[in-house]
Amino acid sequence: MKNLEERACYCALNRIFGFEPRVGVGLVETFGGAAAVFKAPPGDISAFLGSQARARYASLITGSAFESSATELEKLEASGCRFVCHGEPGYPKALLECEDPPLGLYYRGSLPPEEVFDTRPQIAVIGTRNLSFYGRDWCRIIVESFSKARVKPMIVSGLAIGVDVTAHRAALESGLPTVGVMATGIDEIYPAANAAVGESMASTPGCALITDYPPGTGAARINFLRRNRIIAGLCPATILIESRIHGGGMMTARLAYSYDRDVYALPGRIDDPQSQGCNMLIRENIAAPIGNIPDLLERLGLGKADISLKSDFKAEVEARYAGLDEGLRRDLLKVAMTVKSHRGIGMDEIRDSLGWPFSKVSRLVNELECDGIISVDLLQHCFARTVKV
Asked: Which one of 1.10.10.10, 3.30.450.20, 3.40.50.2300, 3.50.50.60 gives the CATH number of domain 313-384?
């Protein structure tokens, strides 16, 4: 571990060059250390920075900036957090391969960072905040299948609502380590709705919360864009579950591709806006399509897994209702298979297809939904639940 002076100087430079980390890293390398940057003549700093736009940074490299960061580090350590400097043990090696790694990471976890990073494969699972039932099912299935693989990976995501928190929760429930890359300071979990999941990650051995934003940084749109490069850089592979054509998930996937990482995408219905981003990346040969779980595990280098997929939807429904009256069982099966054959079908359409009263259709749909056979969205569109691992 670097001494306090060097770490405080790294912390200060991270504050100054957070949006241009390459410049900060270049300064450290040129002057032989972060502390050396603060001791260098201002003229030498300005000469290195060169352009008029960057020259403004020279006036920020001051003794007061160092002192503020030194105080910040003391408070961090007192609260159970720490700042991991670029190149220091515990700093993720994968980030060092990127062209724009942060000068440091704020870290919160129950184990030291050197025991969390670089000990197992890391896989990013990302996507839209507006997650569909299809995306939620498959996000959980994919993460749960990793827990049954011969090689157990770490799941990395952004702690946002939608795909991110679904992946984190599935990892925690499956016994997999998971890391949340935050777009705020380490002292604030955003959004507040995910605070319980974030706290659980911070206290679970092997899991952690990280960010390159200083304490006190609130949520802002530009922060999420900067955060995405860390998710992409941390992981040799990125999985996009669902995304519209424009969105943070698409940006992260393209960043991962630019870092020469493997990218996978869950294919979706061609007329579903939530799948258009995934389908586009597959079309552009940026992402490989996820066709089946065993193949995905093999391609990720996780080895074979002890999993079985219930692929016979009809048999599953029949088995679920084996003890019911034959007439009711037959009606439930008819509704379930109608939904299975027409993804997103409305209850009015089911009524017209089967020629039954709406009240009967509504009652049967409600029973199938309660039993987890189908899902019904706010617009009363029905979807057969994806097969389980």
From this structure: 1.10.10.10
